[in-house]
Every structure is written in C-alpha cells, then in structure tokens.
C-alpha cells in the first residue's frame, strides 16, 4: 500500500531561510575614519560598489593590496565590466584607491589625499535649478491673460506650439490647493478632508452605522479618524446624489449585512454597501419573500378585534429587516 503512495515532499516549495549577518561567519577590520570618509564622499553607485569590494577583498583578508580584475569585480556586483572599469579609474584619479604596476589594487588609507567630490553633483544641481527657473518662467507666461498665450521660448517645433496655444485657450488653469486643509470648503459640508466631504444627512447615516458596529464589536471597536470619517460620509453622499439612494434604504441594507455572519465582516463601510448593493438587495428581497410565505396567524389586536391583512402587512414590514436597539445589538424576533 505504501508503494502506491507518491512522495510529494520534493514538489513542495522549500521555505528559504533568512540570511542573517553574524560576526562568527567572518568580519572585516576597518578604520572608522575610513568608513566615515567613504560615507561623506560623493560617489556613484558603481564607484561605491567597487570601493566596498576592494576593501572586502583586501582588509577582509588582512592584506593591503590584491589582484582584482574588472571581470572579477563585475561578477561580484550588479554592474557590467565597462561600468566597473570606469568607476575604478575614477577612484584612482580621486586617490581613494591606488594600483601598482603589477595591477594590484587597494584602498588608500591617507584620507587627506582623497578628492571628496568630483563636482558632478554641483553641476547636476545647477542644471536642475536652471531647468526649474525656465519651467517657472514658462508657467508664468502661460498663466498671463488667463492662460491664453503659450510660452515664447522653448521648443522650436511650430506644431507643438500651436497645440499648446489651443489647449491653453480651451482649459482654465486655476491654482490647485497645496494641501488638504487649503481645499475650498463646500457650502453645505459639515465634514471635509481633502476632496472627501459630506452633509449633515450623510454624517447622520454614518453615525448610525458606527453605532451598529460599536454594538457588536464592543471593546474592539475603534472610532474612525477624521480622514476616514470624511471618506465614509463622501461615499454616502455619492450614493445619495449619484446613485439616487435614500438614506433609509442605505441603512436598511447595512443592517441586513450586519445581521449576517459573512457580510458582517465584508460590509463594514458605506463603500462596501455601494459595491455590493445589488447582492444586498437580493438578500433583502429573499427575506421579505420568506416572511410573506409564512401562514398568517389569527391574532387579536389591542381592541379585541382579529388582526387584519393590513395589520399583518405592517407587521411584516417591521420584521422583514433585522432591528437593532440603541446599543446596536440585534433584536431577535422569535
């Protein structure tokens, strides 16, 4: 019997063990002064990689120099041989490493001889500032006369200029807010955070939803932060205005979701109600249908009269949807 059982252990993906650096596996004795200088030096990625590899294969083996070819350094890094050769030459020119006639290389321990910067960073920063000033000038020109004129300087291609002029004539270029707090407040908004906002009606719906969640979550309940509360109000507002849903219908479907063990965890926000609206409506219709199919019991009202069909329909309407008390707890209809 055991011969017919296939061994599937070899097909299982083996969990890779984490690689943890430990001194017991070996270490490199290096001066703190040299490490501080390397961290404060303006180096490119390939230059830093070559410097660290040279330190590792010299000081790491308690030697000052070693024969390290460009091919070997490239195999130990993510850079090609050409990039390694260029970086190595730059380090030699900046006197951070040195190479003898036999091709042995090693780090230069005389930090005072190092050329800490090659001036490329300053050039890149200067070019970036120059480009930024040109862009600001072009934007100022575009915003003149309500954005009807295109930049005077720039691309010499007439077709691009013409398209830019046409677009700046068609669209308005208002100054966008720099932060959420600077967003223009909506006239009827009682809560707003960035582009999310809601009216008092939306906030009331969200507060009722939160009271239901707090009822069954108990000590685990955490009230939403201002940004999350504004997002929920915004979702309710979108359902009212865009989807044309009534607030009482929104709350009804939310209560139905909270009465179900599955939907309780998958429908805890207005956005989930909006996403699963059609499914929740089907659940509500099934509940209503199952209640209507029950035989009408003969009951006596408070006035001593038999309850009529109208009274029974009213009773169904009140009991086809799960009801909650003030604490948000589900009221059982036994």
From TrEMBL:
**Bacteriophage lambda Replication protein O N-terminal domain spans which residues?**
20-114
Q: Which Gene3D superfamilies match?
A: Winged helix-like DNA-binding domain superfamily/Winged helix DNA-binding domain
InterPro entries from the UniProt entry:
Phage_lambda_VrpO_N, WH-like_DNA-bd_sf
Q: Which domain of life is it from?
A: Bacteria
What protein name does the entry list? Phage replication O-like protein O
Q: What species is given as this protein's source? A: Rheinheimera soli
């Amino acid at each position: 019997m055991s011969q017919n059982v296939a061994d599937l252990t070899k097909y299982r993906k083996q969990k890779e063990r984490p690689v943890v650096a430990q001194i017991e596996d070996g270490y490199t004795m290096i001066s703190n002064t040299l490490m501080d200088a390397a961290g404060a030096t303006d180096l490119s990625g390939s230059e830093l990689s070559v410097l660290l590899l040279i330190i590792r294969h010299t000081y790491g083996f308690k030697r000052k120099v070693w024969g390290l070819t460009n091919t070997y350094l490239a195999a130990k890094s993510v850079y090609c041989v050409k990039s390694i050769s260029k970086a190595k030459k730059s380090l030699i020119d900046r006197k951070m490493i040195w190479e003898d006639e036999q091709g042995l290389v090693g780090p230069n321990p005389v930090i005072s001889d190092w050329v800490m910067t090659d001036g490329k960073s300053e050039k890149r920063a200067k070019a970036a500032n120059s480009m930024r000033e040109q862009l600001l000038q072009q934007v100022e020109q575009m915003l003149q006369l309500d954005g009807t004129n295109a930049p005077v300087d720039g691309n010499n291609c007439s077709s691009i200029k013409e398209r830019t002029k046409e677009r700046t004539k068609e669209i308005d270029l208002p100054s966008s807010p720099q932060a959420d707090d600077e967003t223009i407040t909506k006239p009827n908004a009682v809560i707003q955070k960035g582009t999310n906002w809601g009216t008092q009606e939306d906030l009331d719906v969200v507060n009722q939803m939160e009271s239901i969640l707090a009822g069954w979550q108990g000590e685990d309940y955490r009230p939403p932060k201002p940004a999350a509360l504004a997002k929920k109000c915004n979702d309710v507002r979108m359902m009212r205005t865009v989807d044309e849903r009534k607030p009482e219908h929104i709350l009804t479907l939310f209560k139905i979701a909270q009465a179900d063990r599955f939907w309780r965890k998958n429908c805890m926000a207005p956005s989930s109600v909006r996403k699963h609206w059609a499914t929740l409506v089907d659940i509500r219709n099934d509940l209503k249908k199952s209640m209507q199919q029950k035989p009408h019991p003969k009951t006596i009202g408070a006035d001593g009269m038999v309850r009529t069909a109208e009274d029974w329909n009213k009773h169904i309407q009140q009991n086809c949807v799960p009801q909650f008390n003030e604490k948000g707890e589900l009221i059982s209809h036994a």
